[in-house]
Amino acid sequence: MKAIIQRVTKASVTVGEDQVSAIGRGLCVLLGISVDDTQKDAEYLVRKLLNLRLFEDENGKMWSKSVMEKEYEVLCVSQFTLQCVLKGNKPDFHLAMPAELAQPFYGSILENMRSSYKPELIKDGQFGAKMQVHIQNDGPVTIELTSPSKPSDPKQLSKQEKQQQRKEKTRSKGPSESSREKGALRSRQDTNASSGAEGDVSSEREP
């Protein structure tokens, strides 16, 4: 999941001639959902964007307060084009979640934001519509946020699994091998010491 988070003095969404929503100072979030995204990705993104310290405190110190601490508004806009890959010069969007799946998923993200914050301060565009997004960026401040990646290539997955198995095997063998080596070393030292002591004793007994 990808998000472009912009600190704004105001932002709004219109569809045709109608204004769908508008906010004052706060964050405008362009959100792109991929085919691989899960609720864990959504929870990560909601938690991070609501807690990003993009605003100044009461003394004017920058990067000190989050949108929740300032009680500012958030405008979310679904933006599948963030999942674009280029084939030559042509954009391809096969990594974006299909609209019939993305719409309820996007709705669940909004509900998560509203339950985590003040619901009246979370605004939305119009899913699937051709929107005009008017953003007055403050700063300008623009943050790109991506949920933790998961390799989709089976070869890469297999490689990571093998690496993990080797690490686990090393951790499990390490202490036991080390203990055996130490034990063997102590045994050799004891044997040598014993041999030396016996030799000394027998030599003393000889005339």
UniProtKB/TrEMBL annotation:
<keyword id="KW-0694">RNA-binding</keyword>
<dbReference type="GO" id="GO:0051500">
    <property type="term" value="F:D-tyrosyl-tRNA(Tyr) deacylase activity"/>
</dbReference>
<feature type="compositionally biased region" description="Basic and acidic residues">
    <location>
        <begin position="152"/>
        <end position="167"/>
    </location>
</feature>
<feature type="compositionally biased region" description="Basic and acidic residues">
    <location>
        <begin position="178"/>
        <end position="189"/>
    </location>
</feature>
<comment type="similarity">
    <text>Belongs to the DTD family.</text>
</comment>
<dbReference type="InterPro" id="IPR003732">
    <property type="entry name" value="Daa-tRNA_deacyls_DTD"/>
</dbReference>
<keyword id="KW-0963">Cytoplasm</keyword>
<dbReference type="InterPro" id="IPR023509">
    <property type="entry name" value="DTD-like_sf"/>
</dbReference>
<dbReference type="Pfam" id="PF02580">
    <property type="entry name" value="Tyr_Deacylase"/>
</dbReference>
<dbReference type="GO" id="GO:0000049">
    <property type="term" value="F:tRNA binding"/>
</dbReference>
<feature type="region of interest" description="Disordered">
    <location>
        <begin position="141"/>
        <end position="207"/>
    </location>
</feature>
<protein>
    <recommendedName>
        <fullName>D-aminoacyl-tRNA deacylase</fullName>
        <ecNumber>3.1.1.96</ecNumber>
    </recommendedName>
</protein>
<keyword id="KW-0820">tRNA-binding</keyword>
<dbReference type="GO" id="GO:0005737">
    <property type="term" value="C:cytoplasm"/>
</dbReference>
<keyword id="KW-0378">Hydrolase</keyword>
